[in-house]
Write a structure and sequence with these properties.
- The complex is a heterodimer of chains A (309) and B (275).
- By secondary structure, chain A is mainly α.
- Chain A has a single domain, classed as Formate dehydrogenase/DMSO reductase domain (Formate dehydrogenase/DMSO reductase fold), CATH 1.20.1630.10.
- Chain A has eleven helices and no strands.
- The longest helix of chain A has 33 residues.
- The radius of gyration of chain A is 20 Å and the shape is globular.
- The two termini of chain A are 24 Å apart.
- Helix content of chain B is 31%, strand content 19%.
- In chain B, the strands form five sheets. Chain B has a four-stranded mixed beta sheet. Chain B has a two-stranded antiparallel ribbon with strand order 2-3. A two-stranded antiparallel ribbon of chain B has the order 4-5.
- Chain B is of the alpha+beta class.
- The chains are: A mainly alpha (309), B alpha+beta (275).
- At the A-B interface, helix 1, helix 3, helix 5, helix 7 and helix 8 of A face helix 2, helix 3, strand 8 and helix 7 of B.
Chain lengths: 309, 275
């Protein structure tokens, strides 16, 4: 007689939260790295990541709240209702994740405003003076760390349950992190493509060259993600059945592994190093495929793992 | 001293008095899935078709569930039942309690684990963290429910409603240490009577000990129980380390991609400034 495990019924709010949280973390991380070691000509790329990260962090908070059975009691995640003081539960990924989202929201907000001030979209002089005094690199680094946490803790959260498709091996956190990096970079790329098309970008050559560098990092993320996905499924053994049978299998192998990872990687590698100096615009189709792959992966793992798909 | 229950399945007769007592004492409604209003009257639907079990599973309105496991065949004359009155085990190391982000799940001074309804916000992390499938989401309240070990009764010196109602003393309430000693003696007795597979399920070997533990006549799997459940946190450190390792690889790849670019860019910029 099989064990009658119950499922938490985490559905679309959570799928989108995991997906968008990954993008937010990945995009911010990309920008922070550029902030730390890139040149001044890379600032437009860094700003694009900041423009993406903060709004998505806000959306993530909303999604997380909407998924609760009692959305009005969301604050219980952050403040213990008996003492009205913060009381994180270190063994609980949901608890630590809620605080991480808050911290990430703070740093991504600072960077978001910084980007708006820098480009003159927030032309308030006192703000401009204040911002020049803030240690941009320091909070970028802290934001990147919390962004990385945001992208990966969702996988660790699933792995610390008793549902076999999630917890038979501990690789989901790493897999979601790699996916967050690849989808985050893809989102930055799409933003750059959009700004190039609309003529807002200041220097097409610099952005093209910067994107080519970013693509190198993105390729590594895609390779790591493919390896982790295959390893994750292989180590699941029989527990992989809910994820690989029927439509789920078609979506995971066809939609994620082939369309969302292998084909974009092959297309980006084919463009290769020759395009570093001459590239002008990211290939939109590749980026859309990477993003779709990330969404399908979260959908199949979250919903399929519970037998809801 | 922690209080708990010893459930001796060898004397369970499947009468479900425990289920009824639980429902009555805790004012639990009928299972919503099993009732449908037809012409202004409630009609029972969704029969499981499984032996004498129409409860099916633990839920937000069924905090106790008598399992009926049919074995053999009446045609061959070797038909037999295993029965087990299942509920929350009030584990000494409770996964649900450890993952709850709001501290809504708490252990009382008598060792039972309860859900503080006014604190729970319905995140449902505890549901996935329970290896026994005990905690259930209540669609009507947006919170989770489970057996409380009759928290109100036991703090007034009474026994649990299910133990009180059990006609065969298959469910016995008391101090866990005393119950364990009693249970070990019972296992020895059954073994001498030829029940070779008789065993305790939930002694200190499982999750630090289950405060509600069982005497089974066969392997735990036969009763739909996991043989060696672990805390869900077993994956916390390996999962975190794997994530950190991946973060280092991805971070380094991005650093390498942009490092040269940064120095070139600064060089280009300074050259322009000099010009």
């Amino acid at each position: 007689m099989p064990v009658q495990l119950q499922i938490p019924e985490w559905e679309w709010w959570i799928v989108w939260y995991f997906f968008l949280g990954g993008i937010a973390g990945g995009a911010y991380f990309t920008s922070a790295i550029i902030e730390l070691v890139g040149g001044p000509q890379d600032r437009p790329i860094a700003r694009m990541g900041y423009y993406i990260a903060f709004p998505l962090a806000v959306v993530c908070g909303l999604l997380l709240t909407l998924d609760l059975g009692r959305p009005a009691s969301f604050w219980h995640m952050l403040v213990y209702s008996r003492t009205f003081l913060p009381w994180p539960v270190w063994d609980s990924p949901i608890s630590v994740g809620a605080y991480a989202l808050l911290v990430f929201g703070l740093f991504s907000f600072l960077s978001f405003v910084d980007a708006l001030v820098e480009t003159g979209r927030l032309p308030w002089a006192p703000l401009r003076e204040k911002y020049s005094g803030l240690p941009r690199k320091v909070y970028s680094l802290l934001g990147a760390l919390s962004g990385f946490f945001l992208a990966s803790y969702t996988g660790v959260l699933l792995a610390t349950t008793h549902l076999p498709a999630w917890s038979t091996n501990p690789l989901l956190g790493a897999l979601f992190l790699a996916s967050g990096a690849s989808t985050g970079m893809a989102a930055v790329g799409l933003g750059l493509a959009s700004s190039l098309r609309s003529g807002q970008a200041l220097n097409r050559d610099w952005i093209g060259e910067g994107w080519a560098r970013l693509k190198q990092a993105d390729n590594v993320a895609l390779i790591v993600e493919i390896v982790l996905l295959v390893l994750f499924l292989a180590l699941l053994g029989a527990a992989a059945w809910p994820l690989l049978s029927g439509v789920n299998g078609v979506l995971l192998i066809g939609g994620v592994l082939i369309l969302g990872l292998a084909i974009p990687l092959a297309m980006q590698l084919r463009g290769g190093s020759r395009r570093i100096k001459t590239s002008t615009s990211p290939t939109v189709l590749v980026l859309v495929l990477i993003l779709l792959g990330g969404l399908i992966m979260r959908t199949v793992i979250v919903m399929g793992g519970q037998g809801l798909l | 001293m922690p209080k708990g229950m010893f459930v001796d399945t060898s004397v369970c007769i499947g009468c479900k008095a425990c289920q009824v007592a639980c429902k009555e004492w805790n004012s639990l409604e009928g299972e919503p899935d099993h009732f449908q209003e037809v012409d202004g009257r409630l009609k029972a639907v969704n029969f499981t078709g499984n032996s004498y079990d129409n409860t099916g599973h633990l839920s937000a309105t069924n905090w106790r569930h008598v399992r009926f496991i049919e074995r053999g065949s009446s045609l061959e004359g070797n038909m037999s039942w295993l029965m087990m009155s299942d509920s929350c085990k009030h584990c000494a190391q409770a996964g649900c309690l450890e993952v709850c982000p709001t501290h809504a799940l708490m252990r009382t001074d008598l060792g039972n684990v309860v859900v503080e309804q006014d604190v729970c916000n319905g995140c449902r992390a505890c549901i996935a963290a329970c290896p026994f499938g005990v905690i259930s989401y209540n669609q009507q309240t947006g919170r989770v429910n489970k057996c409380t070990l009759c928290d109100d009764r036991i703090h007034k010196g009474l026994e649990t409603a299910c133990a009180k109602a059990c006609p065969t003393d298959s469910i016995v309430f008391g101090e866990v240490d005393e119950l364990r000693a009693q249970a070990r003696q019972r296992v020895d007795t059954l073994k001498t009577l030829g029940y070779n597979k008789a065993q305790l399920y939930g002694d200190t070997d499982i999750l630090g000990g289950l405060n509600v533990f069982y005497l089974l006549l066969d392997d735990p799997e036969e009763y739909g129980q996991p043989r060696a459940p672990q805390l869900p946190q077993k994956n916390l450190i390996p999962g975190s380390l794997a994530s950190i390792g991946t973060a280092i690889v991805l971070g380094l790849s991005a650093l390498i991609a942009f490092r040269e670019r940064g120095s070139n860019g600064r060089h280009q910029t300074s050259t322009r400034e000099e010009a």
